[in-house]
Amino acid sequence: MNKSVRNVVVSAVSLLILVLFLAGSGLAQTERIVPKAENFLFFMDHSGSMAMSAPSGAEKIAEAKDVLLAVNNDIPVMPFNAGVFTYAPFKEYVPAEAYSKPAVAQAVGGLKESYEIYGRLTPMGFGLQSLDSLVGVLSGRTAVIVVTDGESNLGPKPVSVMQDMYAKYGNNICFHIISFAQSAKEKALVDQMSAINPCTVSAVGADLMDDAKRADFVRKVFYDVEIIPAAPVAEPEPVKPVVEEVIVFRSVHFDFDKSNIKPEFVPVLKEASEMIKARPGKNVVVEGHTCNIGPAVYNQGLSERRAASVRNFLINEGIAAERLKAVGFGLNNPKYDNTTREGRSLNRRVELRFE
């Protein structure tokens, strides 16, 4: 298992264990992560200046790729749309679609590092104008992570283009800067771009190879942490079974009108199967849920298929079939706000509980 995959598994398992602990301990509050945007775009300078050496001796483009790969690895799995683009030249490597860590990692890792430097200018302003046409068709908030060395020597001034886009999209756009600037002039341009809007998070590229600084950058750019007060725990009635533990797959969700388990959620489900095996005397109820789009009858069937999909996965992992009961709740038990896109996505979920 390579380091990137191992880190994803560890992060997912840690989140699951945290939820189990909070659910079983009766603490007065719990936490959840909430996306700061519905879309994010990596926008990387691929001009001649990025092929020049950084202070470390490596090409700036090579360092920038390492930073973006590390940032991508640390982004929590949430219902984002994500894309990868370059300027100088402007090129789409991953269109703005449902976020896939592997797809983003493959695109960033495949960017060329060896190319002609001379004559390959940096039209950052033109690149931003090309990006504008893509941002205009996206729904919701968009975070644009600009990777730049502060060079812009052709076309409109990038600060002016950014100001125009802020005026056009308002709070639905925010630019964040990862800087590989070296000269005073380059750093001045980075500072100007960072100062346009208070929403901007700016960081020096080399600093983001530090785990703590990168974690801080990822949290500030991609998500907030909300504290949710828990309702008082009532004493169970003697005639009812005591629910001892609840496993809530907060980061395991299904695509719209789908019941298949996506590959990125397999590590979490495997960890859940180990926890179930560790409690051989307990049976498990697999609960499927949907959002409120579509007829109630159809959603009931869809929730049952989602529950059955997870049940079949656990059986394939060695859990006895008689220990697992799949139940569908359709659209009748939402936990999140079905009037928002984010809430509907989070409601397309499966929960497990011991009984």
Q: What is the helix fraction of residues, given as a range?
A: 25-40%
Q: Output the CATH class name of the largest domain.
A: Alpha Beta
Domain unit count: 2
Strand content: 15-25%
The biggest sheet, with number of strands, parallel, antiparallel or mixed sense and barrel status, is: 6 strands, mixed
Total number of strands: 12
CATH homolog superfamily of the largest domain:
von Willebrand factor, type A domain
Sum up the overall morphology in one term: elongated
How many helical elements? 10
Would you identify the CATH architecture of the largest domain? 3-Layer(aba) Sandwich
Short overview:
This protein has 355 residues and is α/β, with parallel strands linked by helices. 38% of the residues lie in helices and 22% in strands.
